[in-house]
Design brief:
The longest helix has 20 residues. The strands form five sheets. Strands 4, 5, 6, 7, 8, 9, 10 and 11 form an eight-stranded mixed sheet that branches. The chain is elongated, with a radius of gyration of 45 Å. It folds into two domains: 257 residues, no CATH class; 315 residues, NAD(P)-binding Rossmann-like Domain (Rossmann fold), CATH 3.40.50. α11 crosses α19. It is built from 25 helices and 23 strands.
């Protein structure tokens, strides 16, 4: 057997052979055999052998059956019980002592008595050997005393005796060629005989008596008897037969053995075939020996138990295949990654340009003191730590700075680098299934939000204030939630809805910037270092991160996927359905079709196997409350509005981004926010007329005015509620 053991991965490759030498022109014939014994017991053994041969013939095809008279017969037809006992004792001594020969032994002979005589007589191979006959597998049974009416006596030799025997007894009348036979065929020998006969032919032997030695008993063992036999079967199921050899190299080793052995080459046959071909086999034991594989099975089992016991609709394979991009590898990024791995989402890419500082490890769970001491990049350190936690994960870190609106790029080198970073971010978003926006400023979320709209990717946003948070998903224009390739192609082709706001297909829900009436700009300008740092209650990030991950998993298990409508509460849901069916009835009366996110009476439209899918989740620590809200899409949104998408289609990413970064107010102009502001300022002139103001009640002027121009965003870019 040839094998290779990959001990590191616990994989074993092997190929097994029953090697048989295949000399051209070498042929072997089995001749009819006449046993020495002629008593009644011998006839009984011969009858038993014939019955076994008939049974074997019934299970083989006619062409595979040898002639009935040319078969091996049971050793019990050749050797008497006394002779069998003598051979069994000799073989037991030979195997136990490791001697190269065993001395003469018969029913009345003692081994020690003949030991010195054998050595003095110069019998074949009288020297001592280190290897036993049982290890060599082939040996010679020499008949030393054969008198009519008396049991024969024997001696055992190894194959080094063949040259001597070829000279003294070329007719092979006084010895048997014996070999350890692994075969269980009752009338035919096993494959090792072929190799022994090739060697015998090289010494000139053309006819040999052969013993196929099988499960012989030691002399001190209690013998057993076969059915119908009253004699001890010391040689078990061993066989004896007569073979004839025809070989073109017969006797070649008798002339010049040393020169001939260096030139002889033989082909070998007998390699085990796999699927009809001679090829290796492989045994993978990693599932039971490799600790990494054991951990993979345990992690998978946890999710499978969840499916078996609580959630039959849980799609574990979908979770395993989902590729997630984490933009921001700080407090939120670390906690989101840990929760994703818990759900079996192991393909993660971290994006961040910062390094681990000494204040990070206590809040950001994927970093250690050594990371801060060595100043490692956050993205790379986070990716490596997830691999340490779970070696089966597929992670990587991308050191990348996200280009931002209002952050000026003044030199050609800076512009080239910023556009290169934007192109890399664009490629990353296209190659992933879901994107988490986890950065610490408002403007750093604009480009990823915009690209997720362009490529129709699941986008989930999480932002923290001091004691409040918001977790939300962005919308999609495609009710069928098409693949990113199809949607990106429609953008490049310039569909009418991208150029004409009147024909704009609104997303099912709004994005992070849809509630704003100002475009994102540089919120870090003119701030001190302490004002640029994110200050938040430590427990806030764990809650927001968990909600963001649960939102993604729920989306993946909803039959509408990313296009599912936003859920708020049961009363709002009832009103949505009522309004839909009223519109549908009116439209059907006019012969029209109504498009709506609520398309039938089934509750599953607003929920899936894991429950409903909200649009926004806003939480507050000052009173430990949490609200579920819906934000509607805005046709002048600077991230998902039709005018910005049309500008992208016309100008391309590089030109659009250059203007957004370097031209003050460009994003507001291209999105339509500046036009809306001018229209509002013109309409304010109406309120300057004192006559109109007098018509209002005096108390009305003191009424609290609700709403803010920045859509709930504070000056530092964090959410205020």
């Amino acid at each position: 057997m040839l094998s290779f053991a990959d001990l590191k991965n616990h994989v074993f490759t092997y190929i097994f052979a029953f090697p048989a030498l295949n000399e051209p022109g070498h042929e072997v014939f089995v001749l009819p055999y006449k046993p020495k014994r002629s008593d009644a017991n011998a006839e009984q053994h011969a009858t038993t052998t014939a019955a076994a041969a008939a049974a074997a013939a019934a299970t083989t095809s006619p062409e595979d059956q040898p002639p009935s008279e040319a078969q091996f017969v049971s050793c019990h037809a050749e050797f008497t019980p006394a002779e069998q006992r003598s051979l069994a004792e000799l073989f037991g001594m030979f195997a136990a002592s490791g001697n190269g020969n065993a001395n003469e032994k018969g029913p009345e002979n003692d081994t020690s008595e003949n030991d010195s005589k054998d050595a003095a007589a110069g019998t074949p191979n009288s020297q001592e050997s280190k290897v036993s006959l049982a290890d060599k597998g082939v040996f010679i049974i020499k008949v030393t005393n054969e008198q009519p009416g008396s049991p024969r006596t024997f001696m055992l030799y190894d194959l080094t005796s063949l040259p001597e025997l070829a000279k003294t007894d070329p007719g092979t009348k006084s010895f048997f060629l014996a070999y350890i036979d692994p075969s269980s065929q009752s009338t035919f020998p096993g494959w090792p005989l072929r190799n022994a006969l090739v060697l015998a032919s090289l010494y000139g032997f053309t006819r040999l008596h052969v013993v196929a030695w099988r499960n012989a008993l030691a002399a001190f063992d209690v013998p057993t008897t076969s059915s119908g036999s009253s004699e001890p079967e010391f040689l078990g199921s061993s066989l004896v037969g007569l073979v004839e050899i025809a070989s073109p190299l017969s006797g070649a080793l008798l002339q010049n053995p040393d020169a001939l052995l260096s030139k002889l080459t033989f082909k070998a046959t007998g390699w085990e075939k796999t699927d009809g071909k001679i090829q290796s086999r492989c045994v993978d034991l990693s599932s039971s020996m490799d600790s990494k594989k054991i951990m993979e099975g345990s992690v998978s089992l946890n999710l499978k138990l969840m499916r078996w016991r609580m959630l039959p609709g849980l799609d574990v394979s979908c979770l395993n295949k989902t590729k997630v991009l984490l933009i921001g590898s700080g407090t939120l990024g670390c906690n989101v990654a840990r929760a994703l791995v818990g759900w079996g989402i192991f393909n993660l890419t971290f994006v961040d340009s910062g390094r681990v500082s000494f204040s990070n490890p206590v809040r950001q769970t994927l970093f250690t003191f050594e990371d801060a001491e060595n100043g490692r990049f956050k993205a790379e350190a986070a990716a490596a730590r997830v691999m340490e936690i779970y070696p089966g994960a597929v992670t990587r870190g991308e050191v990348l700075t996200v280009p931002m609106p209002g952050h000026l790029v003044t030199t050609a080198d800076q512009l080239e680098q910023a556009l290169s970073q934007a192109k890399r971010l664009d490629d990353l978003i296209q190659s992933h299934d879901a994107v988490f926006l986890l950065t610490d400023s408002r403007e750093s979320r604009w480009l990823p939000s915009f690209l997720c709209q362009v490529h129709d990717k699941i986008c989930i946003n999480a932002a923290l204030g001091f004691d409040s948070f918001v977790v939300m998903r962005h919308g999609t224009r495609n009710p069928q939630h098409s693949t990113s390739e199809v949607y990106a192609a429609s953008v490049r082709e310039g569909k009418p809805e991208l150029k004409d706001a009147a024909k704009w297909v609104k997303p099912n829900v709004g994005c992070y910037f849809c509630s704003d009436v100002t475009a994102p700009s540089n919120t870090l300008k003119d701030r001190t270092l302490d004002q640029q740092c994110t200050v938040t209650r430590p427990g806030l990030s764990f809650i927001a991160s968990a909600l963001a991950v649960e939102l993604l998993v729920t989306i993946l298990h909803n039959r509408h996927g990313y296009a599912a409508p936003g859920h708020v509460d049961a009363e709002t849901t009832r009103k949505m359905k009522s309004n839909y069916f009223a519109k549908k009835a009116e439209a059907e009366a006019r012969g029209e079709h109504v498009e709506s996110s609520v398309d039938d009476l089934e509750e599953d439209d607003l929920s899936g196997g894991l429950g409903v899918i909200p649009h926004q989740i806003r939480g507050f620590f000052h009173d430990f409350s949490q609200n579920v809200l819906i934000g509607h899409p805005f046709d002048r949104c600077p991230a998902c509005g039709p005018r910005v998408l049309a500008a992208y289609q016309e100008q391309g990413l590089a030109k659009l981004l250059t203007s957004v970064m370097n031209v003050s107010g460009y994003l507001e102009e291209v999105s339509g926010l500046a036009e809306m502001r001018r229209m509002a300022e013109e309409n304010l002139d109406v309120w300057d007329d004192e006559a109109l103001l007098d018509e209002f009640d005096e108390d009305a002027g003191d009424a609290e005015r609700v709403g803010s121009g920045d859509g709930g965003k504070g000056d530092d870019g964090s959410d205020e509620f």
